[in-house]
Amino acid sequence: MNEIKAYTKLLEINPRNTKVYQHRGIFWSKQSDYDQAIIDFTEAIRLNPHYAEVYNLRRMVWSSKKKNDLAMFDFTKAIERNTRYADAFNNRGVILARKGNYDQAIDDFTKALEIDSFYADAYYNRGITWFDKGNLQQALADIGKALHMKPEDQRNKKAETLLEIRIKNFRIE
Asked: Distance (Å, rounded) from C-alpha 39 to C-alpha 145?
């Protein structure tokens, strides 16, 4: 807990330092003290409401607490503040896909890829969403791109193998 003491000391010196609140919030979230993390992220946002990254960080805590509506709110705020924030589009797409809003999720993954065409996780997530929609060819194409970019990622290899088996079985039936 020496880190917490150091962050707290820094805040005593400058109580308006948003970066310190951000980093202390990250530390709290790594310790699974989500309530404290939310307090620090919320204070950083209060001090600087245009700080898109902190909305995204707080969203991760809301997601960990299974508060998806609050997470969606923070994703949207992060995107409003930085329309080039690929992580926010990708992560919001994950929540949308979990809710069954596949078209909106695919739009968000596509936007993330327009911002960063080498974003392997966005290809993976879009591929899984295409699969959930029943578009196996599109799913395989996106998973293949993710695997090409991150060949060491076992998640991509497993997904590609399962899709190939599904496509093969689909053609036989």
From this structure: 39
Full-model pTM: 0.79
The answer to whether domain 109-173 has CATH 3.50.50.60 is no
Task: Tell the residue number behind the tokens 């001090």, with chain if given.
Answer: 47
| Residue closest to 108 by CA, chosen among 95, 120, 70, 100 | 95
Whole-number Å distance between alpha carbons of 44 and 23: 10
156 and 124 in contact (C-beta within 8 Å)? yes
Out of 3.40.50.720, 1.10.1240.10, 1.25.40.10, 3.30.420.40, which CATH number does the structure's domain 1-82 have? 1.25.40.10
Contact (CB, 8 A) for 17 and 53? no
Kindly report, residue by residue over 123-167, the tens digit of the pLDDT: 999 999 999 999 988 998 998 898 888 878 777 677 777 767 766
> Helices 136-149 and 154-172: crossing angle, nearest 10°?
150
The Cα–Cα gap between 75 and 59 comes to 7
